Amino acid sequence: MPDETLIHDPKGGMPRLLEIMRALRDPETGCPWDIEQDFASIAPYTIEEAYEVADAIEREEWDELRGELGDLLFQSVFHAQMASERGLFDFNDVADTMSDKMVARHPHVFGDQSNAKSAEQQTKDWETIKAAERAGKAQKGTLDGVAVGLPALLRAKKLQKRAARVGFDWPSTDEVLDKIVEEAGELVEARDELSQAEVEEEFGDLLFVMVNLGRHLGIESETALRAANAKFTRRFESIERALATQGKTPEQSNLEEMDALWDAAKRAEKNT
Q1: In 3D, which of 42, 34, 31, 38 has the Cα closest to residue 83?
Q2: Tally of structural domains, the chain
Q3: Which of 22-26, 187-191, 195-199, 266-270 has the lowest mean pLDDT?
Q4: Structural domain contains residue 24
Q5: Do 266 and 234 meet the contact criterion of CB atoms below 8 Å apart?
Q6: 242 is a domain residue
Q7: Angle between the N-to-C axes of helices 13-24 and 62-85, in degrees from 0 to 180, rounded to the nearest 10
Q8: 123: left (phi over 0), alpha (psi -120 to 50) or beta
Q9: Do residue 9 and residue 97 come from a single domain?
């Protein structure tokens, strides 16, 4: 039976959350929805919660961040509970595995190595340790272990970084920019002469090279695109507000008028 005292203890901390999860999954007294879930059905929620954490950080909404981190933590608890029910592992195993990994990957903090290293050198050491870990898991290929389920922009960068470690990389941004021009030309050609599937393929190639350019410039493509999305949202909302003062909606406007309002919003941002 669930420990009701712990469940209702407002200062119960992590043990309380674990007990709540066990109660929700109890086959006799738990929540029907929680009981019928499995790893596959919960995975999309896990991804969604991670994005909501990133969104709260981007908006600097720290009270929201506390709640979003709790939601993300609950996803780990949910997966661990399902694993425990199958006899695979439990939440303590998850925590211990993470602790072991962090100690092993930081010999300059927890071992006998000097911590008098640059951040760049520590990053290289981190990658060397991770490569050794992959070798221990029989992941022999350079690209083995790059999760398929990652957001496409993030996975593209990780694939490129892995390839770069074995020398498969352009030496500078000049070559990447040349490749972007080449891929853009191939996209135009595909648009004019080839099938929709081939257009999509060329478009993907162009995106992949753009991520590579971002990597060479030290830019996180995912972060840059999120910022561009936020900027577009701000400026388009400015257009809507400006039209509303005239008693109009975007549907009642035209591209020329909205372009002018967009430019005005852009100038206003630069002047603030």
Answers
A1: 38
A2: 3
A3: 266-270
A4: yes
A5: no
A6: yes
A7: 50
A8: alpha
A9: yes
231 and 186 belong to one structural domain: no
Q: Which long-range contacts does 225-230 make (Cβ < 8 Å, 24+ apart)?
A: 225/153, 226/54, 226/58, 230/58
φ and ψ at residue 206, rounded to 5 degrees: -65, -45
CA–CA separation, 5 vs 50, rounded Å? 31
Q: Report d(CA 133, CA 141) in Å as an integer.
A: 13
Q: What pTM was estimated for this model as a whole?
A: 0.63
d(CA 187, CA 264): 32
What's the mean per-residue pLDDT of the chain? Answer: 91
DSSP 251: G
- Per residue in 50-62, pLDDT (tens digit) is 989 988 998 899 9
Q: Indicate if 68 and 96 belong to the same structural domain.
A: yes
Residues 123/107, Cβ–Cβ less than 8 Å: no
Give residue 78's domain range: 4-104
**Amino acid identity, residue 81?**
Q
70-112 pLDDT, tens digit each: 999 999 999 999 999 999 999 999 999 999 999 988 888 888 7
- In this prediction, residue 188 carries a pLDDT of 97
